[in-house]
Automatic annotation (TrEMBL):
The lineage of its organism: Bacteria, Pseudomonadati, Pseudomonadota, Gammaproteobacteria, Chromatiales. It comes from Chromatium okenii. GO terms for biological process: isopentenyl diphosphate biosynthetic process, methylerythritol 4-phosphate pathway; terpenoid biosynthetic process. The keyword 4Fe-4S applies. It is an enzyme of class 1 (oxidoreductase). This is 4-hydroxy-3-methylbut-2-en-1-yl diphosphate synthase (flavodoxin).
Length: 413
């Protein structure tokens, strides 16, 4: 019953291999995340990386900020491999990456990619030599590099030069426009220098992260217009809760719709005690709701109104959505294509039957009063009416049967 999504033409970029993951070109947009553990704490970092990978993060970045962290990296890689978790690890370097990669070759080899911030590799002559050292090490170990510019740590010498040039111009630009230009110039010029030092173009990913939605959109449009490098998207310091989700979605959706972006991260600030995996799920849902990728069956559910006088359908929708995500680690290997399945859980007779018919499998509660009795539709046809207190469990069994029949090895799919 699903309709084909509108195709989005991707901005042409040069593919980059990060371990077994391909980024850019015509490859699917890749989701990445980052740990917030002390990397020197091997057990905690391994546990969080594995959790993020299970949630669907295809690349995981870890902080490498001091000697203990650098020493830990190969042990983290070995522990993950022992668990069968092959997710590529990205080393996040600031200030001292040239020294850590030089002094700890096992760390350099264990990482699948290095992240370099050109604003934080040093100042003056040291900046040039330290940047060169990191690129030369990337060449030695055949590792790709993300040149990640961030407006919170932008090269101050570059900003000062561009601001001075703008002040002398006959028609000076807005300060924000100069900032945007500085971000793009930093990324492009750093990439050109990396190529001059021997790194190939298919080993470079660029990013220009900003915390303002309109700023991010403007910068990435310029970046895409000026280069064919693979691009990593993310609204930096997006914030907590709904603010972080809405901001990230608003920025990324515009760029993705324009075909810009090859990897994404949703940089949410987790609430105390909240799982780090939330950012992975949000990233998946952005891509899936846009029709760019599919990760897990999606539940269509109505918001409720005066006709839904109890919370029966809300509990049912939450129950079913949670169940589908719980099953995906098993279903993913056993039932190829199941991630595209559409499930509807509706609350009353106004739109309920119609939405349920449009889904692969849907259930519609009757609304006010909600004496538990709900028709179930499979591929547009009513097949049963569930009654009683066990509707959720009955519906789950029907979902299981549908999955096995339509996505199992013996099915036509």
């Amino acid at each position: 019953m699903n309709t084909a999504p509108t195709l989005i033409t991707r901005h042409a970029t040069i593919p980059v291999a990060i371990g077994a993951i391909q980024v850019g070109g015509n490859y699917p947009i890749v989701i990445q995340s980052m740990t917030n553990t002390d990397t020197a704490d091997i057990a905690a970092t391994v546990r969080q990386v594995a959790d993020l990978a299970r949630a669907g993060s295809e690349l995981v970045r870890i902080t490498v900020n001091h000697e203990a962290a650098a020493k830990a990296v190969p042990f983290i890689r070995d522990a993950l491999d022992a668990q069968g978790c092959a997710v590529p690890l990205i080393g996040d370097f600031h200030f001292n990456g040239h020294r850590l990669l030089t002094d700890y070759p096992e760390c350099a080899q264990a990482l699948a990619k290095y992240r370099i911030n050109p604003g934080n590799v040093g100042t003056g002559e040291k900046r040039d030599s330290q940047f060169a050292t990191m690129i030369e090490l990337a060449c030695r170990y055949q590792r790709p590099v993300r040149i990640g510019v961030n407006w919170g740590s932008l090269d101050q010498e570059l900003i000062a030069r561009l601001m001075d040039e703008n002040a002398r111009a006959a028609a000076p630009r807005e300060v924000s426009a100069v900032m945007h230009a500085a971000m793009v110039e930093s990324a492009i010029s750093s990439a050109e220098r990396a190529v001059a030092l021997g790194l190939s173009q298919d080993q470079i990913i660029l990013s220009c992260k900003m915390s303002g939605v309109q700023d991010l959109i403007a910068v990435y449009r310029q970046l895409a217009a000026r280069s064919d490098y693979a691009l990593h998207l993310g609204l930096t310091e997006a914030g907590m809760g709904s603010k972080g989700i809405v901001g990230s979605t608003a920025a990324l959706a515009v760029l993705l719709q324009e075909g810009i972006g090859d990897t994404i991260r949703v940089s949410l600030t987790p609430a105390p005690g909240e799982a780090r995996t939330r950012e992975v799920i949000v990233a998946q849902e952005i891509l899936q709701t846009m029709g760019l990728r599919s990760f897990a069956p999606m539940v269509t559910a109505c918001p409720g109104c005066g006709r839904t006088s109890s919370d029966t359908f809300q509990h049912l929708a939450q129950n079913i959505q949670g169940y589908l995500r719980e099953q995906m680690p098993t279903w993913r290997s056993q039932y190829p294509g199941v991630e595209t399945m559409q499930v509807a859980v509706m609350g009353c007779v106004v739109n309920g039957p119609g939405e349920s018919k449009h889904a692969n499998i849907g259930i519609s509660l009757p609304g006010s009063g909600e004496h538990p009795a709900a028709p179930v539709f499979i591929d547009g046809e009513k097949v049963a009416t569930l009654k009683g207190e066990g509707i959720a469990e009955q519906f789950k069994r029907m979902v299981d049967e549908y999955v096995d029949a339509h996505y199992g090895r013996g099915s036509a799919n």
